[in-house]
Sequence to fold (752 residues):
Amino acid sequence: MKLRFELLHTDGAARCARVHLPHGVVDTPVFMPVGTYGTVKAMAPEELESLGAQIVLGNTFHLALRPGADIVALHRDGLHGFMGWERPILTDSGGFQVFSLATLRQISEQGVRFRSPVDGAEVHMSPEDSMDVQRVLRSDIAMAFDDCTAYPATEARARESMERSMRWAERGHAHYYRDAPPGHLFGIVQGGMHLPLRTASLESLLKLDWQGLALGGLAVGEPEEERLKVLEHTLPMMPADRPRYLMGVGYPQDIVAAVARGVDMFDCVMPTRHARNGHLFTSEGIVNIRNARYQRDTGPLDPVCSCNTCRRYSRAYLRHLDRCDEILGVRLGTVHNLHFYLELMRQIRAAIAAGSFAALATRIMAIPRRSAPPMA
Amino acid sequence: MKLRFELLHTDGAARCARVHLPHGVVDTPVFMPVGTYGTVKAMAPEELESLGAQIVLGNTFHLALRPGADIVALHRDGLHGFMGWERPILTDSGGFQVFSLATLRQISEQGVRFRSPVDGAEVHMSPEDSMDVQRVLRSDIAMAFDDCTAYPATEARARESMERSMRWAERGHAHYYRDAPPGHLFGIVQGGMHLPLRTASLESLLKLDWQGLALGGLAVGEPEEERLKVLEHTLPMMPADRPRYLMGVGYPQDIVAAVARGVDMFDCVMPTRHARNGHLFTSEGIVNIRNARYQRDTGPLDPVCSCNTCRRYSRAYLRHLDRCDEILGVRLGTVHNLHFYLELMRQIRAAIAAGSFAALATRIMAIPRRSAPPMA
Fold:
């Protein structure tokens, strides 16, 4: 099954498209909220829908450990029925988590053996296992199982892990397409910060028929300049007729910088995780709602924001909820932060369509990355 | 200002009425979800509205400590604007919490001095202070500040605390009505389990013009038989032309037993607190969703329930969310438990109107109080 990628507009290297998936159409550039355990933390599916989320990300590693793919499989349409989300789902392969969360890890050509961080049980995951889980989850987009290169890595280590990822990608591809798959499979370009390895990884992948390509091994702690170098080197070589997905990125400024270079898809825990820590994205920068300066502030969190949180509640109330560890505080912060990201993507798409992306990018890049300055 | 209490139907001692309050009409018998810190835990106001909640309870003690009445006062319409809830609010007086939560308590005729459980600061609360806070919160119904009698208590101790409560009630009444109040004030009958003291308390209160009367000092650990004895003794003496409120009760079976004896209003943390602990009320009894038996159970929590949780999610999903400490699990459990309570009250009102309350009561009393039996 070929993924239909309908290119609508370009503005420099930035582009707008419609991606046709089994559970619906996704407008790109798109941001995918992260739903690790079959729930975007603190949100109900109907809230995500009204925020305009078109696709969410599920974590294969986490779901394979809890509740286990066999339990998700008992539900209609896999993860969709389990979590009550009828729109598209992308699942990562578990590769990144195996390398960032699991302990006592033993890597062999066959796959990875590790201790479950949930209960200490010994678990084995191979490229074939990852594909089996993602098929059962009935993801619209499944990702290749990769050996994610740590940062920093020597050329030799980056090469070894990239080459293993390429062999695993090939095995996963054969396994995923062995009979009618529930969705599409994306390959992942690795190679760390070593540009010739990125070239080699991409060339290796392009021997097979992937429905989209991702950039992996970024957003792992590297400086922004290094990431941009990899993007500027690799993106122009990636096929223009299918989606390009930058995994795990990032701040609004990072997203805009990547869209400017031709990226179509993003995911990041930042809006949801920051909300749980009281860090709220606004047009003036990040507001730390725990700050005492908001104690008596009856104004909205962000006066130019149209989300439910900003329309109905004061900063003083949000600070109070945070201080009392009230769940509603996390909910209202998450609604706001996801609205901020999803609204940013709508603005990006509109600007590309209008040929005014550069002006939008300049405006977003001018927002301070860290805490907002004291309000007057 | 006189509270308009519109009696609609009676069925034995059970009765249906409409209580007209500044922020709207409340149908009784009514259950008031508890919103301690200006939020019914895990719920948004629009969810409470769609569940059919007509009035919520706020805690004067908690709100006076965090965020402080002065901060709530900065918001339009007090606690209504602060928490985004436009419907009626009843606030307790703080009396019960001073006696159950505060440490280093010193009671004098003037009031109570105690250490704040939030930050250890020394706080003083008098009947006048409690009225001032409740006026600022703009509660539709404010409660008299009382010295809540512990259980068990000797006759002498119960008398001393009841008599102090009566003197405080009189002071609070004068203070609340000293100029145009934002709502109505209810008195609280005390006296512990000592029936003559209950009579004396009620007689003392009836010298003043309260817009409703509550039964306090119950749901404090006494056996059910003792509580029913107090209800059966006191309720027939309480005026029939205004609301009767049983504070802090209870299980569905307790509510039905109290309605049968003439109670109109209830509040309890049970549906919300139980939800946070994975205890979910169903037509077959309480389901402990943490139980391993629900691991592979794709059926709804309660097949006869029409709430959003039961319509959209499986027991396996609810158990998974609980196991992963996901906020959505608490949310879905709270929606279900509040729906269970609010639907019970709708059924009670309909049965009283139809003259069939006894049959409903028999059915509810037959539901086991503790965990549901294993499902087939």
